């Protein structure tokens, strides 16, 4: 009289693959859900057994044997209706068919005159199916429909002389109902287990995908990687024109150093340098384009931009911090036996470039091209050790916060007129007696201090060290 809770099939779509034993095992076996067709045959078979037993024991009228034909034919008819007609397109055909089963079940309860055990058995099977298939809403609507059908049926056929049923009828009703509930519960358990294991497998695949994406992100700038994996950007050959701030840098004296050092030591030094400079670039939001030899190319303004002025200021701020950080690294390298004084030189320009994916459909490179890129590279090659050269466009965007020095004009291929260039001195806030960064370097002495980064605890330790150094120098001076 009811649809089986095998409706859970709708949650998985098809037969589920369940892993037996250990979840890490690769051996799987198909656990098919209990079909609607089979579930309905089982449910109506239970009622067939109840009808036959009740008629044989005289508790039900003999004409009810004709219902056996209906209970045997209805599952096939329901299958035809739900699978072979236009109703199959209904998104909730299973729930609707179960409502119809509730109406039929209510009519059956009225026909048997509300005899207690068979009636309760039918109610239990229907309510069990409703709860599993559609939850409390299905259960509530199914109960109302069954109650209404029962009332109509009782009004038509009347109530039985006794609500009690013979022992055999009661036993058959209880046993048949228990069999139905156990079978459907077994399939429900299998479906729940299959769903849990499928969820575990999906979670494992998700974790593997995340791990793989993080590995792939090492080959892309974080901003580009994030825009791709969040769906903001399509991976296809396309470019656009944008105004960007472009940065180039290299190590002056690196060629001489490569002739002095072993390849392994040189590689370690270069990777350390790139790692430190990359952290500075990412700190200011730069998109790292590429590493070429000892050179670094970074641009600001794509995929994300904070506006032309802020992009240019972030680019110059990054260059200033790189220059400061280079002095700290140079002191560390000197302590490791590298005597060649490595110096960084940098060039920055701002202007419209073509940015996007270049290459082939199966191998792309996210980069920029244009005359402003050539200008930044030219400025970097013209810069002296520790010098930051910027174009006029960059200067006009940062001059209110960055102190610059006029360096004249240069002629660059692609530019019709000479290009004015400027040297970056420092942040205006760090000029004068209140500057946060101080440096002194002599033979046997080196000091680099950025007061903005020093904590209260570190400040006391630094003061103690400076006082000890000062006392030592005074003692040596007095002894002379």
UniProtKB/TrEMBL annotation:
The chain crosses the membrane at residues 41-60, 66-86, 98-127, 139-160, 167-187. Keywords: Membrane, Transmembrane, Transmembrane helix. It comes from the Bacteria. SMART domains: CYCc. One of its GO terms (biological process) is cAMP biosynthetic process. InterPro entries: A/G_cyclase (IPR001054), Adenylyl/Guanylyl_Cyclase_3/4 (IPR050697), MASE2 (IPR007894), Nucleotide_cyclase (IPR029787). Residues 245-380 form the Guanylate cyclase domain. One of its GO terms (molecular function) is adenylate cyclase activity. This is Adenylate cyclase. It comes from Marinobacter vinifirmus.
């Amino acid at each position: 009289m009811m649809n089986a809770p095998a409706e859970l099939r709708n949650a998985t779509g098809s037969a589920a693959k369940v892993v037996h034993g250990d979840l890490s095992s690769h051996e799987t076996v198909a656990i098919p859900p209990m079909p609607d067709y089979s579930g309905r045959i089982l449910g109506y078979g239970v009622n067939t057994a109840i009808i036959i037993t009740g008629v044989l024991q005289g508790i039900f009228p003999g004409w009810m044997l004709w219902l056996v034909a209906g209970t045997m034919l209805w599952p096939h008819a329901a299958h035809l209706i739900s699978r072979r007609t236009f109703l199959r397109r209904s998104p909730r055909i299973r729930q609707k068919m179960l409502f119809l089963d509730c109406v039929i079940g209510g009519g059956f309860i009225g026909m048997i005159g509300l005899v207690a055990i068979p009636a309760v058995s039918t109610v239990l099977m229907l309510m069990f199916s409703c709860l599993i298939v559609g939850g409390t809403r299905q259960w509530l609507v199914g109960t109302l429909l069954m109650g209404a059908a029962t009332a109509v049926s009782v009004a038509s056929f009347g109530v039985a002389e006794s609500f009690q049923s013979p022992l055999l009828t009661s036993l058959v009703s209880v046993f048949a109902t228990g069999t139905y509930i156990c079978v459907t519960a077994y399939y429900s358990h299998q479906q729940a287990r299959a769903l849990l294991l499928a969820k575990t497998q999906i979670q494992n695949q998700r974790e593997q995908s995340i791990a793989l994406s993080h590995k792939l992100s090492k080959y892309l700038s974080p901003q580009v990687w994030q825009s791709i994996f969040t769906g903001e950007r399509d991976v296809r050959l396309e470019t656009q024109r944008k105004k960007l701030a472009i940065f180039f840098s290299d190590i002056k004296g690196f060629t001489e150093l490569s002739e002095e050092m072993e390849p392994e030591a040189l590689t370690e030094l270069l990777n350390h340098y790139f790692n430190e400079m990359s952290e500075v670039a990412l700190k200011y939001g730069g998109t790292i384009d590429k590493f070429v030899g000892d050179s670094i190319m970074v641009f600001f303004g794509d995929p994300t931009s904070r506006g032309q002025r802020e992009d240019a200021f972030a680019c110059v701020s990054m260059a200033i911090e790189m220059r400061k950080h280079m002095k700290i690294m140079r002191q560390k390298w000197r302590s490791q036996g590298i005597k060649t004084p490595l110096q960084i030189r940098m060039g920055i320009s701002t202007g419209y470039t073509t940015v996007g994916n270049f290459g082939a459909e199966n191998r792309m490179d996210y980069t920029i091209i244009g005359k402003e890129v050539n200008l930044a590279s030219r400025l970097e090659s013209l810069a002296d050790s520790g010098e930051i050269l910027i174009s006029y466009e960059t200067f006009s965007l940062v001059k209110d916060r960055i102190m610059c020095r006029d360096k004249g004009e240069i002629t660059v291929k692609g530019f019709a007129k000479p290009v004015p260039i400027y040297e970056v001195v420092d942040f205006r806030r760090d000029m004068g007696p209140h500057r946060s960064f101080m440096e002194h370097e002599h033979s046997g002495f080196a000091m680099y201090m950025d007061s903005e980064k020093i904590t209260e605890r570190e400040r006391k330790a630094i003061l103690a060290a400076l006082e000890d150094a000062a006392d030592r120098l005074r003692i040596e001076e007095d002894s002379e």
